Amino acid sequence: MSSFRDFLFDRDRPGPHALAVAMTAVRMGERQLLIGDDVKLFAELAAKTGLTGRNCAVVGSEAAAARAEAAAASGGVLMDVERGALPTLPVGDGEFDVAVLDAGPTLLSGLDATGRANLLRSVYRALRIGGRVVIAEGQAPTFFGLVRTRTAGLDAFRAEGGSAALLEAAGFHPVRVLADREGQRFTEGMKTRAGRPGGG
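The structure corresponding to this sequence follows.
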């Protein structure tokens, strides 16, 4: 039987971001937009695009920007870091193939309805036709594999339709839940030629 010490130092055990990295399915050469404050996740995702891809992280504070730059340097990946006050995204139209929105337990639930709608419209604008967005809700497992308790705001946000409803309202189609486990939910939306920001 493995000891507790073996459990703590088992290097083969999946890390806290393994599920998120798998669900986003970022590929070599893609232009990737990363939104939120989980800079360690961003560095892992940035490694997936390789030298031929592009990574741009939009974070909400100078402290998060410094952490993102340090995480990128530590991981040996290239990642541009933009400081932005959400819901505004300081990026151009159609610049990205994929966007990953790390909503955590509070990013979306902490915005009002107008702020959430404006953020997803900005994501829609930033993606090329045929691009996709993955929203990661919830909290990654703790070091000991235990899931942190979700906030009441996140539960209320999900009760109102959550990320799927938000993506559909912004014009993404089709929209699907990729996974809902380990305290995390991953929802994907596609930007097709039929869709327009605002769902019109």
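The first helix runs from residue 4 to 8.
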